[in-house]
């Protein structure tokens, strides 16, 4: 309560200080009007001058107010964009969990799938002897092969050779 009382006193003093500062500023900026002893035409001229000054100040006030409204709208839009970029949810802190690879895959794929981490068991085995039997190598004179395949007869032989191994 003591702190609240002290804060209220300071707040009241601040309000009084602002009011005094405002009065001092206005007394410097605004000169008092001396309208006594002026003719009607002089009073009309004075009113026109004051009216022009009021219009200028009002235009400036309107421009500043429009800029302020534009800035507040822009700030709102940027805040919305920031919230959209952040997302709705906070990311939870990640913890280290020791799980085997089988358990992890079972958790991802579900209990329907049998998961085996033995990747070598699923590989196809190839024997070296089978590969050598599949490609028999004929050693011969290459010039005979070129002469035999030249012209239309060679193309026919190539076509027949392609059909014959599947037919046998």
From TrEMBL:
GO terms for cellular component: troponin complex. One of its GO terms (biological process) is cardiac muscle contraction. Keywords: Acetylation, Actin-binding, Coiled coil, Muscle protein. Pfam families: Troponin (PF00992). The keyword Transmembrane helix does not apply. Residues 8-60 form a coiled coil. InterPro entries: Troponin, Troponin_I, Troponin_sf. Belongs to the troponin I family. Binds to actin and tropomyosin. Troponin I is the inhibitory subunit of troponin, the thin filament regulatory complex which confers calcium-sensitivity to striated muscle actomyosin ATPase activity. This is Troponin I, fast skeletal muscle. It comes from Rostratula benghalensis.
